[in-house]
Amino acid sequence: MALSKLEKRIRIKRRVRGKISGSSELPRLSVYKSNKEIYAQLIDDKNGTTLAAASSREKGVDANGTKTEISAAVGKAIAAKAIAAGIEKIVFDRNGFVYHGRVKALADGAREGGLKF
Fold it and tell me: Which residues of the chain have pLDDT under 70?
């Protein structure tokens, strides 16, 4: 039987997460997107804590424009929070999503904000 779209994404997610991990010095930037919103978190996997988070639901993020433009704004917001917390280098976790469109826009926004990955 063929795998559903969600099952394929979860399989890819497990494969990627087996190769990358975040720490307090080099946290993991995890991205989740739904049909309406996009979320980003900086995670320290060694301690199991979230160091910073940003989403398209926050008031500080410009909610006007296309979903791709909003994703870029979320990337800039997470970069600003990371730099305020003293984090400059990260590991990017696309969470099983294709690195294209909104996920790529978020990554580019984070790079513009000053994060290195």
Answer: none
